[in-house]
Amino acid sequence: MQILKAMWTQDETTFHGEHYQLEGAINRPRPVQEPHPPLWIAGGGERLTLRVVAEHADYANYFGDDATFRRKTAVLQEHCRDVGRDFSEITLTANVDCLIGQTEAEAAEKLAEWKKPGKEAKEAWAARALFGTSEQVAAKVARFRNRGVRYLIVYFADAAWGDSMRRFATDVMPSFR
């Protein structure tokens, strides 16, 4: 991240670190954003990745069920305190899978069609995903918002064969405008 930021902001970059060394490295044309493009770091590793997020990132992206997400956010806040960074400077984002059914039974059928692992894996997936009826999914989106998430990057598991994307656009999104 130090090299990347330097390459984005300096005419020539010299860097002598433990693993990387640069002498007069040039990156042209430089980005137009000032001071540099926003840095998004994805990953929830609590010792290294979230520490790097605290030191360098503008956006943090990790996922998990409610308890996991809260724990990772608390770890990130602690790393921010340790490095002297204001946690509010980091925008929280999350990748999340989505399957929506008209009824709970239809959502369960879609899950069975899409995901073939055992019951425990399906339950763990459903706990961290936007899964269920439109109303249930809207409630989960609200929980993400209440946890401080400002961007959801949504993967529609049935994009090729289902209607979750349409349901999300017509039934869920209007409640968050």
What is the count of structural domains? 1
N-to-C CA distance? 35 Å
CATH class descriptor:
Alpha Beta
The CATH architecture assignment turns out to be Alpha-Beta Barrel
Helix proportion: 40-55%
Taking all Cα atoms into account, the compactness measure Rg is: 20 Å
Strand content: 15-25%
Unreliable spans are none
Per-chain topology:
Layout: H1 2-9, E1 13-16, E2 21-25, E3 40-42, H2 49-56, E4 59-61, H3 66-83, E5 91-100, H4 104-114, H5 119-128, E6 130-132, H6 134-146, E7 149-156, H7 164-172
Parallel strand pairs: 3-4, 4-5, 5-6, 5-7
Antiparallel strand pairs: 1-2
Helix pairs in contact: 2-3, 6-7
How would you explain this protein's 3D organization?
The chain has 177 residues and is an alpha/beta fold. The protein has one domain (38-176): TIM Barrel (Alpha-Beta Barrel), CATH 3.20.20.30. Helix content is 44%, strand content 20%. The chain is built from seven helices and seven strands; from the N terminus they run αβββαβαβααβαβα. The protein has helices spanning 2-9, 49-56, 66-83, 104-114, 119-128, 134-146, 164-172; strands at 13-16, 21-25, 40-42, 59-61, 91-100, 130-132, 149-156. Helix 2 links the parallel strand 3 and strand 4 (59-61). Helix 2 packs across helix 3 (66-83) and helix 6 (134-146) crosses helix 7. It is elongated, with a radius of gyration of 20 Å. The relative contact order is 0.11. The mean pLDDT is 91.
